[in-house]
Amino acid sequence: MMDEDRQQPEEQQTPPEERQTPPEEQQPEEALAEDAATEAEGPVDEAPVPAGEPAGQPDSDEGAQPEEALAEDAATEDDSAAEEGAAGEAAAATPEQPPAADGGAKKKEEAVPGAELEPIAIEPERELDAEERARREAAEEERIRREREQLGDVDETAPVAAKPAKLSGDARFAATGKRKSSVARVILTPGNGKIQVNKRSIDEYFPRSYLQSVAKQPLTQTGYEDNVDLRIRVHGGGISGQAAAVRHGIARALCDVDPALRPELKRRGMLTRDARVKERRKAGLKKARKKPQFSKR
Questions:
Q1: Looking at residue 154, what is its pLDDT?
Q2: What is the DSSP string of 153-190?
Q3: What whole-number distance in Å separates Cα of residue 71 and Cα of residue 77?
Q4: C-alpha to C-alpha distance for 175 and 177, rounded to whole angstroms
Q5: Which of 59, 92, 123, 255 is exposed most, by the fewest CB atoms within 10 A?
Q6: pLDDT per residue over 36-60, tens digit each?
Q7: Is the predicted pLDDT of residue 23 greater than 60, yes or no?
């Protein structure tokens, strides 16, 4: 077999450039028509074809498009061209509108809420007579006073009673006041404001002005400071506890004189028996509850 091939003349051997492309690799008619149109338009620089490869053969089988895909692309291009032409005709047929004076589209007027409602007729305030005005002022003052009481904003210096009650010459009222471990026995009689504590004057027994004001607080706020005389015996506790015990006893005696003073004195805390005392120290502790520092070593 090899000898027979060698004996064939060279003229019968077909060069590679003239070999026909296999039927599977032939390009479709439409692609050949496009190539012919491109050649007619002008020369196109083509990359040099390496030796040994046919000039019209594509690089691979994937580069060749089937006839159906080319037909679909052509139909799509025709549709897009038709749409652009229709849009251009519509734009030419529509006359140009002049620009609005406000520089844009007119804004719609917003509806005002409640415009359809009828206005309410307000009656003029009628004039009040003197009696009704006084009644309203009294009710307003009472409301303000109650609000201040609830908030704890009370003027402690304001007098409790506007006018002290008159006492007969032989009247005598006794009461007992307590604070911590102090006990004070108070005897109240009509007089001119003399106060005696353990057979000494109050200024001598309570040297500090603060303690004197604490002991006299019920008298100054009720207005009985210059209308009664007081004899007091107090014992137990310290000087501060004794002053609070005297105040408690005087407030109780004034409630016996005028029962109308009780609500106001009670609200101001003068009738409350304050029994708070200092807790005693326990064995092994530094104070009533303070413990020594713990040390592990």
A1: 53
A2: ---TTS-S-SSPPP--TT--EEEEEEETTEEEEEEEEE
A3: 10
A4: 7
A5: 123
A6: 656 655 554 555 545 544 444 544 4
A7: no
Q: At what angle do helices 239-257 and 209-222 cross, to 10 degrees?
A: 10
Give the model confidence (pLDDT) of 137-194 as tens digits. Answer: 888 888 877 777 666 555 555 556 557 777 887 889 999 999 999 999 999 999 999 9
* Cβ atoms of 265 and 223 closer than 8 Å: no
How many residues make up the chain in this entry?
297
Compute φ and ψ for 204, nearest 5 degrees.
-80, -35
Q: Cα–Cα distance between 81 and 89 in angstroms, integer?
A: 13
The dihedrals phi and psi of 58, each to the nearest 5 degrees, come to -70, 160
Round to whole Å and give the CA distance between 256 and 187: 11
- As a whole number of angstroms, the distance between CA 272 and CA 251 comes to 10
Tokens of 110: 């917003």
Nearest to 248 by CA among 278, 233, 281, 270: 270
Distance of CA 216 to the CA centre of its chain: 49
